[in-house]
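Q: How would the C-alpha cells look for this protein?
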Amino acid sequence: MKRAHTSRTYDRFSGGDATARRSGGPRRSTSYGTRRAPQGEFAPPKTITPPLPAVEAFADLDMPARLLATLGHEGVTTPFPIQAATLPNSLAGRDVLGRGRTGSGKTLAFGLALLARTAGRRAEPRQPLALVLVPTRELAQQVTDALTPYARSVSLRLATVVGGMSIGRQASALRGGAEVVVATPGRLKDLIDRGDCRLDGVDITVLDEADQMADMGFMPQVTALLDQVRPGGQRMLFSATLDRNVDRLVRTYLHDPVVHSVDPSAGAVTTMEHHVLHVHDADKHRTTTEIAARDGRVIMFLDTKHAVDSLTEHLLRSGVRAAALHGGKSQPQRTRTLAQFKSGHVTVLVATNVAARGIHVDNLDLVVNVDPPSDHKDYLHRGGRTARAGESGSVVTLVTPGQRRGMSRLMTSAGITPRIAQVRSGEAELTRITGAQAPSGVPVVVTAPRAERPRGASAPSRGRRGRRPTGQGRPAGEAARPRAQRRTGFGSAA
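A: Here is the predicted structure in C-alpha cell form.
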C-alpha cells in the first residue's frame, strides 16, 4: 500500500505550502482552533482532510489476511478505541497524532499499520524500512515483544537497538537486514555514526511516548534522526500526554494528521481510585512498611536512587520480598529485577520514575507514591501502572503536613479529586484502603534468578508464541506471555 501524495501538500500549521516551509519559506501565524488547552498542554491542530470513520472490528480494516489471522490467534478480538479510530487512517498512509494513556492499546495502533504497509518488502543491509523511536530500552523491548508475532506472520524482521546491550550484536543485526527497527535515540545515533545504519530508506516513522523523550532531553537527537528519514514518509506520534514540549515535533514533522485522543489522563479512568493519605513524619516509615507487607503486589515510587535502595533494604530486613529498580542499576540487574516481579518471586517493586512508564503488570491493583511526584504528569504516569484495560486499581500518595498544599495543587492540575484520609500505622482505615498489615519481622533474602536475555536486542527478533485468553483482558498491543506467566507477567518495563 503506497501513500498517496498530492502535487501540493497543504500545511495546516502555517497556512502555506509544506515544501516551501521545509525549505525555509515564510511561516505564517498558527491557529489551533478554539479548544482551550489544559495547563501545560497545547491544543491539537485541526485536521484539514476529514478522517476515515472508525471501525468496529479488525476484519473491517484493509490489512493482510495473515495479520488478521494472527490477531485471532493472539486472542485480540475487538479493537480498543484508539485502534478503531486511527488504524483506518494510518493504513491509508495518513500521519497520526494520537494521545492515549499507557495501556490504551497504542502499540498495536501504530504497529499494525506499520507492519501492514511494510509487508512484502525486503530491507537491504543497514537500511531499515520502518522506525519506532522510544525513550527507554525497556519500552523498546516491550514494543518489540508486542509486535513480534505479527511481524513474524508477514515475514518481517525486527531489530531492537538500545543502550546497555552489545552494540556489536546490534550492528550485526542491522547488517543482516531488518525491515523494522525499534530504537532509543542515543544508540541509534551511535550506530549511524559507525556506518552500521542509514535512515534514508525509512518510509514510516513512529514516535512513542514523545513527551517523555522531550522531558529526558532527547529532542535534539530525535529531530536529527527525523531529518534523515525519507522526506514525505508517514509519521505517527503517540503519547500519553501532548504538552508544549512536543509542539515543535508536531509543527515540523506531522502534516495534516488525523488527531485522536482517548483516555487523556489517569484521572479519567473510572476503575481507578485516588487516595491521598495524610501521615505524620515520624510514622511515615512504619506506614510504608505495613503497606508493603500487604497480600498482593505493589509498586512503590520514591524520588531518589538512594531512597529506593534504603527502603528496599529495610523491607527485606522486615520480612518483605522487595527489589529495587532505578537508573543506577545495570541492564542485567534491571532485567533480573523484572523477572523476579514477573514470576512473583518479589512482591514489592521499589522504584524511581524509571518505572513510571512502559511497565505493564497484569492484575496490579496498587501503586504507592511514598514520595509525592514533582508534577501532575509524573503522577498520571505513575498511576498508569494500575487500572489498565478495564481492570481496577488504586493510587495512594503518602503526604506529610508540609506537603499537603503542594499535593492539592498537583491534584488540581491533574484534574483529579482524591479521597483524603488521615491514617496511622496499625489502624483499620489504613488496612481498609491499602491492605496494610504488620510484616513478619523475619529477614528475607531474595536470590537472583537467572537473567532472561531480552529478545530482539541483538538480532532480528524471532518472537514467541503464546495464546491470550479470548477477548482483551489486557491491553491490545502488549506482548503475549506463556500461559504460566499471565497472572504476574511483565511486558518488559520502563
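Residues 269-434 form a domain with the Rossmann fold fold (CATH 3.40.50.300).

The radius of gyration is 23 Å.

Upvote if useful.
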